[in-house]
Amino acid sequence: MFIKTTGILSLLTSLFLCFTFNPTYAQDIKKEISYSQHKVLPFYTLKKIGNTAIFQGNQKKRNYFEGWYFKMVSEDGSDIISVIPGISLSEDGREQHAFVQLINGVTAQTSYYSFPVEVFSFSKKRFEIKIGDNYFSKDKIILDLKDSSSYVSGKVEMSGSVDYSSGRLMYPGIMGWYRFVPFMECYHGVVSVTNSLKGELIINGEEYNFDNGKGYIEKDWGSSMPSSWIWMQSNHFSNTNTSFMLSIADIPWVGKSFTGFLGFLYHDNQFYHFATYRNTKLQLQVCDSNKVKIKIENRKNDVTITAKSNSTGLLKAPAGGAMDRRIAESIDAVINITMKDKKGNIIFTDSTNIAGLEMVGDYKKLKDLLK
Length: 371
Hints:
The protein is mainly β. The chain has one domain. Helices cover 6% and strands 54% of the residues. The chain has 2 helices and 23 strands. It has helices at 5-20, 44-50, and strands spanning 32-34, 64-73, 80-89, 96-104, 110-116, 120-123, 128-131, 134-137, 140-146, 151-162, 186-203, 206-209, 214-222, 229-234, 243-253, 256-267, 270-275, 281-288, 291-297, 301-308, 313-319, 322-341, 346-360. The strands form 2 sheets. Strands 1, 2, 3, 4, 5, 6, 7, 8, 9, 10, 11, 12 and 13 form a 13-stranded antiparallel beta sheet that branches. The N and C termini lie far apart (89 Å).
């Protein structure tokens, strides 16, 4: 039988690709623990108290959620992708699943990928989790997601990460002593104040390159997100070593509630902290449905902030552990910040249009509950 040369070349090429091309799979986790199969982890409780970035819910079976928020922005700011991996356990424990959620900050398009809880695993040594073939750590994410209408793959590495520092030995996390209150509805942690990116994602055939881009990582865990809150964040200012985050929320407390807040400005290698537990005063003005003005005052500094959302995408959020709530997030919002010392000298003033902003629930009532 005669076979044309071109046919042989095509056959050899196909065989070569089959043996040399491998899809992106999550790398192995050192000291990997399966959430659904593990029982007792000696000394893990002490480890997670001192490191809020690692998985906190190893002993939870119901009424619980935990999620990490990875924000990634390309070097020129034209591409903004946020990725949220996590775990959801309903109030009665019957519905349990892991998930990976994406939001495109330019198009406001969102995607939600659900996984059996059996494919969720974590490291008992450091912040590393796997959800199927998807891997997440402080240093890297690897995605391999698909459903009937979309496909996401790729790897993005993080380097030069700046860790959050509270400046207090006893309360290393951003929540201070509230971190140790056992009945809090929701807990918050900052994993990476700012970091540099390298790598790319392919989303439905379109390439998103993050070489020399910037990233940010935080997380939440507990039973439910607050009934109402305002959250804003950016690490894209004129000074490339600047990062900012502020969260204001309705906090249930012994049958009542109050407005609590926490946040920071990281600038010129120094942290400036804002929090309810730090003897700080906050004034909130809600201008309209997408704009707020905030004044923060402590014994050293006065800060004025304005924030305005632009395009928004709908994300799933937890209520009673289940991802049954829908919230709007803008990650191309505009934030203006001016910070002065008590003599009126300007320490920092800048603005950005690459910022995250959420205004959720009856956020107008937050100003009435401020103490």
